[in-house]
Structure prediction request, 246 residues.
Amino acid sequence: MNHFIITGTSKGIGEKLAQLLLEEGYFVYGISRGASALLSSYTKYEHFNFDLGNVLGIERLVSEIAGRINGNSIRTEMICLINNAAMLEPLKSIDQCSPEEINTNLQVSLIAPTVLTACFIKQFNHVSARRKIMNISSGSGSYPAPGMSVYCTAKAGMNMFTRCVGEEQRRREHPVEIIAVDPGMVDTEMQAVAREKSEEQYEMANFFKRAHQSGQLQSTENLGKHLLNIIHSKIEAGKLVAHSEE
Ligand SMILES: NC(=O)c1ccc[n+]([C@@H]2O[C@H](COP(=O)([O-])OP(=O)(O)OC[C@H]3O[C@@H](n4cnc5c(N)ncnc54)[C@H](OP(=O)(O)O)[C@@H]3O)[C@@H](O)[C@H]2O)c1
Prediction:
């Protein structure tokens, strides 16, 4: 049996991916502040109401989820952590951002996935099942954009973190397959937040409006199917997978 721990399952990419995995018959443990009514109807879904800004509570959360996985009598074939939750805001030049806004974004988008990865590897170090970590990154981790410095920095950090842990794991006998994936532009609330800003507030707003109007956004369904292929494929630890690759 396969077990998936996914952050950010209340909406968007995380909710759709969780649904597709549940449809395949797997166990999914979802972490977000809000709950998804859609996912709560699946018996193999368990929701953990948790604010990822509380990074010091993550170790306990992971051991609670590990208790559920270890308590399952069906043989475990794969355990996978999907670091999907992130924050886009603050969307403004850095001198307009408050220390609180910067801190919250980096806690949720960068420190939480780092701590989750550390706890996941430690918790499942000695299991023989296949272990995988998929970090949902962004093209913003490679391309600088005005008004998005905190988000871009979190994603760039996530990419480097993935590469470093990949180096550590590749040296091990039974490596954790850690990868980062750039999903491309996807039709979710995060995109709506970016395009609904006024141009005075955020100069990239028009770019996101045009992307929406010209039909460049993928559906969460199409992306979810693509992510399923990536999950099932064996990919070398530390690799950054672009949305057009498999
Ligand atoms: N959409 C795109 O075009 C796009 C492009 C590139 C990369 N991405 C990446 O894809 C991932 C998913 O994005 P999305 O578009 O699906 O975003 P979304 O629709 O805004 O969903 C974000 C998810 O993250 C969770 N989250 C946010 N803050 C949290 C917190 N403090 N604690 C726990 N959970 C929290 C939210 O749950 P709650 O609010 O209920 O807590 C929600 O489930 C992100 O990493 C994003 O950077 C998206």
Q: What stands out?
A: The chain has a mean pLDDT of 96. Residues 2-90+100-183+220-242 form a domain with the Rossmann fold fold (CATH 3.40.50.720). DSSP finds eight helices and seven strands in the chain.
